[in-house]
Specification:
Rhopdopsin 7-helix transmembrane proteins; mainly alpha; 309 residues; three-stranded mixed β-sheet
């Protein structure tokens, strides 16, 4: 074996979205506002579900978990970016970068799996309404969420350990505002074949699998809705899925857009700009989507806000 002449770096440089000093104040304000809206909006969703007993059903249990995941998603990336802008530094330690990447992977995978579980919940509710309470009981919901967590942690740990085996040159610049797995791997001085292979296989299985499940669930849901005779019944059935469908399109559409843009264009800056959509914008929009299109949630939020006042 050839001796490794590369040294372990103690820091990475996060270049952020722009190196233009004049834009830093604008970026700071936009991301701070987005973060506060995301956290407060998703916390309100969780609080409303906890306080309103009639929302203690599988659909809203899963929604509360999705809202918590969205809070974690933005909290992993945005605060570090804001601190770097405020202190006018760009560094993140090697340990900090790997840790951020590890938790980011867990949360993105959780988002992916929870959307699939929520699609299954809607499938059971519409296609097997008489057996809904029997099939989608609390025990099954908790087991499904725990399974999502277990798989997400194990996969994130695998990727993180594969990155730890790599060595980096003494000066590493990451053209991103957080330590994204693909960006970190391709800044190494080591051979990344194994990392790329595992990343490709994991993406196909862990993104393609849940997406296939979502598409299958909605194909059955559409067939069931078409069989409903009354227009009012069709509308009511579809309205229960509209919010979830919107979130699915946002999550997979923006995520797919990022990876398509990165494969077609080698401009890392444009890729980091595109990733803002699914890491920042989507978690911010989710509370609005679920509160504006869901009558029960709107009523619950009004009661929570009224009592808070």
């Amino acid at each position: 074996m050839e001796p490794m002449n590369h040294t372990w770096v103690v820091e990475f440089l996060l270049l952020g979205l722009s190196e233009d000093a004049a834009l830093q104040f604008l970026i700071f304000g936009l991301f701070l506002s987005t973060y506060l809206i995301t956290v407060s909006g998703n916390l309100l969703i969780v609080l409303a579900i906890l306080l309103e007993t009639h929302l203690h059903i599988p659909m809203y249990f899963l929604l509360a978990n999705l809202s918590l995941v969205d809070i974690f998603l933005t909290s992993i990336t945005i605060p570090k970016m804001l601190v770097n802008i405020q202190k006018q530094i760009k560094t993140i330690s090697h340990a900090g970068c790997i840790t951020q990447m590890f938790f980011f992977l867990i949360i993105v995978l959780l988002d992916n799996f929870l959307l699939a579980v929520m699609a299954y919940d809607r499938f059971v509710a519409i296609c097997h309404p008489l057996n809904y309470t029997v099939i989608m009981n609390l025990r099954l919901c908790v087991q499904l969420v725990l399974l999502c967590w277990t798989i997400s942690v194990l996969v994130a740990l695998m990727h993180s350990l594969l990155v730890l085996r790599l060595s980096f040159c003494t000066h590493v610049e990451i053209p991103h505002f957080f330590c994204e797995l693909n960006q970190v791997v391709h800044r190494t001085c080591s051979n990344t074949f194994l990392n790329d292979l595992i990343l490709y296989l994991a993406t196909v299985l862990l993104a393609g699998g849940p997406l296939t499940g979502i598409l299958y669930s909605y194909s059955k849901i559409v067939s069931s809705i078409r069989a409903i005779s009354s227009a009012q019944g069709k509308y009511k059935a579809f309205s229960t899925c509209a919010s979830h469908l919107s979130v699915v399109f946002l999550f997979y559409g923006t995520g797919l857009g990022v990876y398509l843009s990165s494969s077609i264009s080698h401009d890392s800056h444009s890729t980091s700009m595109a990733s803002v959509m699914y890491t920042v914008v989507t978690p911010m929009l989710n509370p609005f989507i679920y509160s504006l299109r869901n009558t029960d949630m709107k009523k619950a939020l009004k009661r929570v806000l009224f009592h808070k006042c």
